[in-house]
Structures are given as C-alpha cells and as structure tokens.
C-alpha cells in the first residue's frame, strides 16, 4: 500500500534542495574569490599560468621527464609510499598500526554498516590514491592523509580495548610507550634537521681543513649543496651526470673521463643522483657504473668523508639516510655529503 506524498513534504524537499544549491553556489563563489585574490597572476598572466599548469601536469603524469623525478622510475604506486614515505612521516610502528587499523575499519564498515567509518576510509583513499597514482611521489604529497591515519589508528586501538578491562590496561601502557617512541622520533628529526649544524656546512668545514684551496674538484649540478663548496674552492667543476644516459650529446663518457683524469677530489653534495643511478642500473647504465666504481674504490678515488649519522639520525632514517627513503625526506634538510680523494 502506498501513501501519496503530501504537499508539505514536496515543499520541504524542494526547500532542502534549493538550500543545498544555494550553499554550494556560495561555497564555489567564495572559494573562487579567495583563489583569485591570493593568486592574481591567474587573471593577469593567463598565458604563463596555463603554460605552468601544462608543465606541472606533464611532470606529474610522467610524460615530461625531469632530473628531480629520476628516483621514481620503476616504482609501484601505493607500495612505494607504504615502504619509503609513511615510515618516515609517521615512523614504522605507526605505519604497521595504521595498516592493521585500516583492515579493522574495512571490516567494521562491512559488518556494522558504519557510515562514519565509511566516510573516513573513503576520504583517506581519495587523498591517498589521487597522489599515489601520479608519477611524482614526494613525501610532502602524503601530508594531507595524516589526520585520517591518526583517526584510523585511534579507532583501531579503541576497538581493541573494548572487549575486556585487563586488555584495556595493557593497551594503555602500550599507547604510553607508543607516544614516547613517537616523541623520540619527532625530537630526533628536529635535532638532526634544525638543531645540528647543516650537513653541507659541516662538510665544507671539513673540506677547508683537508683540501688545498687550489685543488681540482669534480662535483654534480643542480644541487644547493654545491653552493658553499663553490664559494670555498674556485676550481670546482660540475659535470652533468643527469645527461650522461638521458642526453649523451650534452654529457659524453669522453668528457667525463677527461674530468676524472684532471680531478683530485670528487664531491657529491647529496645522494640525489647517487640514489637513483645506483637503484636503476638498466635505465642509467653509464651513471650506474660510474657511481658504483666510485663508491667501491675502483675508480681510483678513496672516500675520506661521509656525513656522520649519530644516534638521533639513525632513529630518523633507520640507519640508512642515503638509499631507502624518498629523496626529499633528507636531501633538503640533512643530505649525505661524500668526499673522495684520488689515490696517488
């Protein structure tokens, strides 16, 4: 048996719809005004704005290969973030807790038909997947997911504590330990990146005490870490290792051999090129051979300096600040500088 919808009900439905459309239009209008006010170049310089968007889109989609995305080659979306991004952002223990809590969240959605949990999972997946599928996988791109991760972990731990009081007491102790560990990791990063002397400055101070001012030095391009070395050593030459495999016309093996023959020292101002070339020997065969033979001493150079990693640095980067993490986790705040001296 059906009941006719009353006139009052129809009017209420129409009113609710118009109210929603009004709020939606107001939201779009306010957002547009704020965007234009804070970004006036969108209107004043539309040509450059469109060009910039086209370039950034090409980089994000991987159709435009640039030097600062080399370490994303042959990476699996999603898996890369779980292995090389989240353990740095929220530490490995929190990453494991989140994965198990997210499984519980999915179970609760299926069993309990909990819409609040559903929206929490959906919003996380939207933020996560929209960035994970892009070619660029920088650590900062995962920052918007952190509130949803923390809420998911909190829900998972709360659900675990409900069954019995004894387990709740044990869980309280474990949460206290977790907070302590998280605080230790956070302080370790703050000390390593902001309290300690910048690793590039520390390396320059070592170099000034060890390397003659007129020494011939070979280094890398496109890295801020090379700037203090350029000021301290006038005979520093940068070879374009990025183009050794990508564009051999700009950087040939013969040119590199000439640079190596005359160089007395080789300085790597960060792990930016070393990491990507060592991890992708098929894509970068020539650069891989250079860095591998340089590191193992086969090139005739001996490593005399590498940025030290103390206990706090070891906690932050799990003892491997060079090869494991997504590059921006360290190359800007605490890059590993290496200095090699030619053996006589």
Would you kindly provide a written description of the structure presented here, covering whatever features stand out?
- The chain folds into two domains: 67-195, no CATH class; 199-342, no CATH class.
- Helix content is 60%, strand content 6%.
- It is built from 16 helices and five strands.
- Helix 6 packs across helix 7 (115-132) and helix 14 (272-279) crosses helix 15 (285-295).
Task: Note the topology.
Elements: H1 7-38, H2 41-44, H3 46-61, H4 79-84, H5 86-89, H6 92-112, H7 115-132, H8 146-161, H9 165-195, H10 199-210, E1 217-219, H11 227-232, E2 236-238, H12 243-246, H13 253-262, E3 265-268, H14 272-279, H15 285-295, E4 301-306, H16 311-317, E5 338-342
Parallel strand pairs: 1-2, 1-3
Antiparallel strand pairs: 3-5, 4-5
Summarize the structure.
The protein has 344 residues and is an alpha/beta fold.
Largest β-sheet summary: 5 strands, mixed
First CA to last CA: what distance? 99 Å
Helix run count: 16
Number of domains: 2
**What is the N-to-C order of secondary-structure elements (H for helix, E for strand)?**
HHHHHHHHHHEHEHHEHHEHE
């Amino acid at each position: 048996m059906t009941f006719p919808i009353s006139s009052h009900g129809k009017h209420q439905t129409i009113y609710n719809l118009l109210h929603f459309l009004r709020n939606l239009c107001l939201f779009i209008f306010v957002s547009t005004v704020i965007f234009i006010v804070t970004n006036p170049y969108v209107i004043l310089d539309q040509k450059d704005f469109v060009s910039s968007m086209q370039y950034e889109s090409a980089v994000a989609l991987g159709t435009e290969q640039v030097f600062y995305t080399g370490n994303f080659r042959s990476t699996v979306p999603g898996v890369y973030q779980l292995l090389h991004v989240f353990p740095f952002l929220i530490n490995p223990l929190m990453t494991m807790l989140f994965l198990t809590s997210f499984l519980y969240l999915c179970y609760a959605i299926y069993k309990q038909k909990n819409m609040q949990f559903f929206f929490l999972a959906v919003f996380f997946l939207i933020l996560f997947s929209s960035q994970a599928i892009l070619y660029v996988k920088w650590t900062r791109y995962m920052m918007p997911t952190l509130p949803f991760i923390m809420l998911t972990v909190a829900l998972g731990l709360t659900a675990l504590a409900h069954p019995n009081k004894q387990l709740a007491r044990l869980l309280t102790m474990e949460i206290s330990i977790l907070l302590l560990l998280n605080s230790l990791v956070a302080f370790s990063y703050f000390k390593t990146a902001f309290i300690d002397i910048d690793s590039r400055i520390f390396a320059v101070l070592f170099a000034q005490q060890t390397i003659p001012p007129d020494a011939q030095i070979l280094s890398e391009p496109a890295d801020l870490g090379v700037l203090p070395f350029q000021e301290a050593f006038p005979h520093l030459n940068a070879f374009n290792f990025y183009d050794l495999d990508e564009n051999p016309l700009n950087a040939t093996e013969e040119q590199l051999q000439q640079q190596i023959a005359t160089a007395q020292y080789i300085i790597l101002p960060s792990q930016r090129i070393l990491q990507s070339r060592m991890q992708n020997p098929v894509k970068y065969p020539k650069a891989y051979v250079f860095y591998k033979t340089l590191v193992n001493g086969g090139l005739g150079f001996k490593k005399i300096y590498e940025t030290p990693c103390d206990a706090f640095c070891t906690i932050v980067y799990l003892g491997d600040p060079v090869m494991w993490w997504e590059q921006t986790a360290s190359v800007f705040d605490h890059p590993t500088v290496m200095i090699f001296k030619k053996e006589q």
